[in-house]
């Protein structure tokens, strides 16, 4: 009995090590220094995208019914490189009992364009906080006509809240050179900067203001919240 239990424990340890090794290998393949081509390949023709409730692309369905999962942060790259009707090569882990692939990369066979999952962009601590500069080609607006950014000559978009755009309007005039620091998102569809500071020169920038917490005098009605249902004010004192 003891020998049987020891063998069972040994088999469990081997299985755990194998699963862990496979997971580690997959994690390594998603790292940009590792080659995802070492993962199993699936081929097929794209039938359609699959979408999240927000409308982001989180995968594709192949014509043979295989579901290919992709992370939503790759939406822009996916729709740029992969279209319904394209024949694709998918590298990733296949499910045992389902026609499902967790993709580390997907390649358009005809064009050679690939989408590779290197993990989501790291936003912690402003790791992608960079300074960009260029000449303003035109101003960008919201639906009510309020300025909410500018487009530079090189195609880079600078975005900032309309109140801050109004406050910083001297730096946002068409034709002048501007420098901005912020969170940069560089995709196949273009580069956009979520501006945190802006100015005429990289060494002379003004920080944007963050949202101000509401104060006691904010809002159209300064008398405070309405009384609860059934509340009756106390009678006036008798004089």
Low-confidence stretches: 1-29, 212-226
Question: First CA to last CA: what distance?
Answer: 95 Å
Shape: elongated
Run of helices and strands = HEEEHEEEEEEHEEE
Strand order of the largest sheet: 1-2-3-5-4
Your description of this structure?
- Mean pLDDT is 78; it is low at 1-29 and 212-226.
- This protein starts with a helix and ends in a 32-residue tail after the last strand.
- It is elongated and about 65 Å long.
- It has 239 residues and is of the alpha+beta class.
- The protein is 18% helix and 37% strand.
- The chain is built from 3 helices and 12 strands; from the N terminus they run H-E-E-E-H-E-E-E-E-E-E-H-E-E-E.
- A 5-stranded mixed β-barrel has the order 1-2-3-5-4. It has a 5-stranded mixed barrel with strand order 7-8-9-11-10.
- 19% of the residues are buried.
Topology:
Layout: H1 2-30, E1 41-51, E2 57-62, E3 67-69, H2 75-81, E4 87-94, E5 100-108, E6 114-116, E7 129-141, E8 147-152, E9 157-159, H3 162-167, E10 177-187, E11 190-201, E12 204-207
Parallel strand pairs: 3-5, 9-11
Antiparallel strand pairs: 1-2, 1-4, 2-3, 4-5, 5-6, 7-8, 7-10, 8-9, 10-11, 11-12
Question: Which short descriptors sum up this protein?
Answer:
single chain, 239 residues, alpha+beta, five-stranded mixed barrel, five-stranded mixed β-barrel, 12 strands, 18% helix, disordered N terminus
Summarize the structure.
The protein has helices at 2-30, 75-81, 162-167; strands at 41-51, 57-62, 67-69, 87-94, 100-108, 114-116, 129-141, 147-152, 157-159, 177-187, 190-201, 204-207. It is of the alpha+beta class.
């Amino acid at each position: 009995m003891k020998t049987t239990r020891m063998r069972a424990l040994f088999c469990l340890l081997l299985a755990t090590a194998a699963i862990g090794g496979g997971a580690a290998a997959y994690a390594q393949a998603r790292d940009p220094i590792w080659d995802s081509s070492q993962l199993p390949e699936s081929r097929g023709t794209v039938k359609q995208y699959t979408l999240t409730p927000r409308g982001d692309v989180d995968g594709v369905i192949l014509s043979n019914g295989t579901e290919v999962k992709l992370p939503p942060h790759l939406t822009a790259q996916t729709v740029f490189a992969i279209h319904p009707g394209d024949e694709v090569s998918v590298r990733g882990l296949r499910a045992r009992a389902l026609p499902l692939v967790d993709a580390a990369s997907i390649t358009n066979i005809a064009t050679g364009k690939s989408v590779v999952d290197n993990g989501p962009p790291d936003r912690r601590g402003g790791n992608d906080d960079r300074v960009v500069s260029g000449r303003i080609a035109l101003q960008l607006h919201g639906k009510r006509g309020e300025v909410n950014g500018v487009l530079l000559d090189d195609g880079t978009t600078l975005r900032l809240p309309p109140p801050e755009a109004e406050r910083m309007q001297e730096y946002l005039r068409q034709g002048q050179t501007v420098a901005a620091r912020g969170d940069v998102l560089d995709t196949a569809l273009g580069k956009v900067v979520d501006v945190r500071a802006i100015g005429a020169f990289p060494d002379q920038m003004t920080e944007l203001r963050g949202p101000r917490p509401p104060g006691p005098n904010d809002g159209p009605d300064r008398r405070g919240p309405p009384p609860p249902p059934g509340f009756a004010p106390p009678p006036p004192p008798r004089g």
